[in-house]
Specification:
heterodimer, A: alpha/beta, Rossmann fold, 2 domains, 16 helices, globular, B: ABC transporter involved in vitamin B12 uptake, BtuC, two-stranded antiparallel ribbon, 13 helices, 72% helix
């Protein structure tokens, strides 16, 4: 009995010690990155594509000599797009082999909100690549938070601008009715402050309809839409199931698909396929366009050619979510390069504070993006001490049943200053409530 | 010892001493990584507390209730609003009042238990889960009109001292859990608990013995909700550090129910064992998957395997040990004791064999 107990204990101890088991890349300087993926559950399409691309790009960087010789290491933790699990993953991934993460990417607004207050204390950059807390774009209040691929308030403003163009001008928008159909979570509600202001300024009627997660049941909401008979629907869903259900329901009540505008997290091939023909004509916006850009092709050849690819289905390379993840990972590595250069640490690992400086110094001109092989895929942008947003631009796409066709170029909101004002107001309110003294930006 | 335990044996005192030494002295000296406090110990204590609440209503009083997470949400948001709007109450005062607010909800939603029972009561209590979450979502006042719906929890300050480090927050959770656990044990052993169990075992018999069904059931629901409310407040303030209704969804209610059943119905230590198992097992599997099989198996498959194993274990437990892990623990102790006594004292015939 005692012997058996002892052997059980050994097994248990071995299991527990595996929690802290190191896996070192020997001989080289390394920089450690967290991959807080969400591959399981209703949001798996977006998690597998986005985080798959990040891992693919880090593999690619390592295969091409690392970042000035610094090899990248990473560890994955499954969050299931759940805020509680994201906190656990954040704490678990925080340190490995004595090295601390320099950046964290939750790919989810609820997860981002759950960890956002830990960033300053832990010296970790929260890189919200096109999601998350919008007023994080005010770098004076949120020095550790970035929205490098534009935030939801710019996104909704670009959408309203696009609608106004189709309707024939802002004066034609007066009296028009718009439904904001959203998943009932922080993410679904995030665009509302900007949307309410703009629609009331334009004299439009805004109807907010929420869908409880995971959003596969939308009958009653679409019946309400039928009653309201709006001119436009902005759809703010998450997960292929919810996104495609909305289109099939729209088809059922005969709501024109080319009067629906999908959010960036419903704007992927995986969200459109399940709806079949019901999806044709739907508009969506992108902060990273799909397609085989030179870098995409290079990763396909080098990483997938060597059998090291992370995607289970290599056909998804170059799809919306994968390209977006690639964009996010490219920014990490560019920030790392900046940080090494700025702090005289070329060829050495950097700290969170140094990485933050590097991220803030991102200046992705068209030329630089082209040099990296992603010219045209992303909108050029530069980040500054006060403005952490990035481009603030989106491209409108339309689904034709097989692929997305780009309808517009990179569009900015009609009045970016107005959006920026909202961001600063919101950040100032947060700073006041929490006794934060905004940083001075020179 | 009388003020701590109403009735006690030597075993209880030893257990209490061992637990206290372990949690107050040994853990803080040997565990230095923040991860263990912030991601394992603190949520474990909070969820164990909520499970005790569930035990009181389900394990002791025999009322099938589902909706612990709803009461947790009530407690958490009450706490936020009390600290925001009545700062004079202080942390401890707010914690108690938010527990009482949750208890008020418990009474309200416990009333159907007088009319319906079994699976129907479960459905009726589900209403509390959805109503409380809906109420918090619907009325902006509860969230102080925050546009996104996720609010930051205030820092914990007790008597002017900030409790913000993981270790300090662990001690706050530990103190609250210890006090409430001792209270629960006393209630379970005293006349209150006798009444609960009488109602559980046969309510008609209990009523004819003079036990008031109304009083006993409503009392159990109120106390249960109080425990859940306090647990919810701690969960939000020590673990999540943010408040969001979605964090207290129906899945959490189910989790607490499973903790209760797996741990062992009608036991207090079962609440702790069940909470530890349900909380740690996925973390452990996830960590093994990523560390031992790093890169060898696709992460999607590992995550799915995790859920498969979890489900399988649940079924196995329900079939082979319906009394839960507390019973397993008891069996293990028993067999250890008999092994030790038979191997330790050689040559002396055991009294049982003497005829």
């Amino acid at each position: 009995m005692l012997k058996r107990l002892a052997s059980t204990l050994t097994v248990v101890l071995a299991l527990f010690s595996s929690l802290a088991l190191p896996q070192k890349v020997f001989g080289a300087e390394t920089q450690y990155f967290p991959v807080a993926s969400s591959r399981v559950g209703p949001y798996s399409a977006m998690g597998t594509g986005y985080y798959g691309a990040q891992i693919d790009y880090m593999n690619y960087v390592n295969m091409t000599g690392g970042v000035n010789g610094v090899m990248l290491t990473w560890q994955e933790c499954e969050t299931e797009y759940n805020a509680v699990k994201t906190v656990e993953c954040y704490q678990r991934l925080l340190e490995k082999d004595g090295q601390r993460i320099v950046v964290f990417d939750t790919l989810g607004t609820p997860g981002a909100y759950a960890v956002i207050n830990r960033m300053a204390k832990d010296n970790v950059v929260l890189a919200q690549y096109g999601y998350g807390r919008t007023d994080g774009a005010d770098g004076r209040v949120w020095p550790w938070v970035f929205n490098a691929a534009s935030h939801y308030w710019s996104q909704i403003a670009v959408k309203l601008k696009f609608m106004a163009e189709i309707e024939g001008g802002i004066d034609k928008m007066k009296g028009k009715k718009i439904v904001h159909l959203h998943i009932d979570s922080a993410y679904g509600r995030e665009p509302l402050p900007a949307m309410r202001k703009i629609t009331s300024d334009w004299g439009m009627k805004l109807v907010e309809i929420s869908i409880p997660p995971p959003g596969l049941e939308q009958q009653s909401q679409w019946l309400q839409i039928r009653r309201e008979n709006p001119d436009w629907v902005t759809f703010w869903g998450a997960g292929s199931g919810m996104n495609s259900t909305a289109m099939t329901n729209a088809a059922r009540i005969n709501f024109p698909r080319d009067r629906m505008m999908y959010v960036t997290f419903g704007a992927a091939e995986e969200d459109m396929y399940p709806a079949g023909d019901a999806a044709i004509g739907t508009y969506a916006v992108a902060n990273a366009l799909p397609g085989e850009y030179p870098l995409v092709k290079d990763i396909k050849d080098k990483v997938y050619g060597a059998g090291k690819g992370n995607l289970a289905d290599p056909n998804r390379i170059g799809s919306v979510y994968w390209n977006r993840g690639l964009g996010a990972a490219v920014m990490w590595i560019e920030a790392l390069k900046n940080a090494q250069k700025m702090h005289n640490k070329v060829g050495k690992a950097v700290t969170g504070a140094e990485f933050r400086d590097g991220y803030e110094a991102l200046n992705m001109t068209e030329a630089r993006l082209t040099e990296l092989g992603v010219g045209g895929m992303l909108a050029p942008f530069a980040i500054s001490c006060a403005n952490h947003e990035g481009a603030g631009k989106f491209a409108v796409m339309q689904w034709d049943g097989k692929k997305f066709n780009q309808v517009t170029g990179w569009e900015a909101p009609l009045d970016p200053k107005f959006i920026r004002g909202l961001v600063e107001d919101s950040a100032a309110k947060f700073a006041k409530e929490n006794n934060i003294t905004p940083k001075k930006c020179g | 010892m009388k003020p701590i335990f109403m009735t006690y044996t030597k075993k209880d005192l030893i257990n209490l001493a061992v637990c206290m030494v372990l949690s107050v002295l040994i853990i803080p000296t040997f565990i230095k990584t923040e991860y263990w406090y912030t991601s394992i110990l603190i949520p474990w204590l909070c969820l164990a507390l909520a499970t005790i609440g569930q035990q009181i209503v389900m394990g002791y009083t025999g009322q099938l209730a589902l909706g612990a997470a709803g009461f947790m949400a009530a407690g958490a948001f009450a706490m936020f609003n009390l600290i925001l709007r009545v700062p004079d109450l202080g942390f401890v005062g707010s914690l108690i009042v938010s527990g009482l607010i949750a208890a008020a909800f418990g009474i309200l939603f416990g009333l159907p238990s007088l009319k319906v029972r079994g699976i129907y009561l479960m459905v009726a209590t589900l209403a509390s889960q959805f109503f409380i979450i809906w109420m918090i979502d619907k009325f902006g006042w509860f969230k102080n009109y925050d546009s996104s719906g996720i609010i930051t929890a205030q820092d914990i300050v007790i008597l002017g001292k900030p409790f913000t480090t993981p270790l300090a927050m662990y001690f706050v959770c530990l103190a609250v859990t210890t006090i409430l656990t001792l209270l629960a044990m006393n209630m379970a052993r005293g006349s209150t608990g006798r009444n609960w169990m009488a109602v559980r075992d046969m309510d008609i018999a209990a009523e004819s013995m003079g036990v008031s069904l109304l009083r006993t059931k409503v009392q159990a629901f109120a106390i249960s909700a109080f425990y859940c409310g306090v647990a919810g407040a701690l969960f939000a303030f020590c673990y999540l550090k943010s408040l969001e209704p979605v964090a207290f969804d129906i899945k959490l209610s189910f989790k607490i129910l499973f903790m209760c059943i797996l741990g062992g119905l009608g036991t207090i230590n079962g609440a702790f064992i069940g909470a530890a198992f349900i909380l740690l097992f996925p973390v452990l599997l996830n960590a093994i998957g990523n560390n031992v099989f790093h890169g060898a198996i696709d992460a999607t498959i590992i995550s799915s395997i995790e859920q498969v194993i979890f489900g399988l274990l649940m079924i196995i437990f329900m079939i082979y040990e319906p009394l839960g892990m507390a019973k397993l623990w008891e069996n293990l102790k028993q067999s250890m004791r008999s092994k030790l006594s038979s191997s330790g004292i050689k040559g002396v015939k055991s009294p049982v064999l003497k005829k």
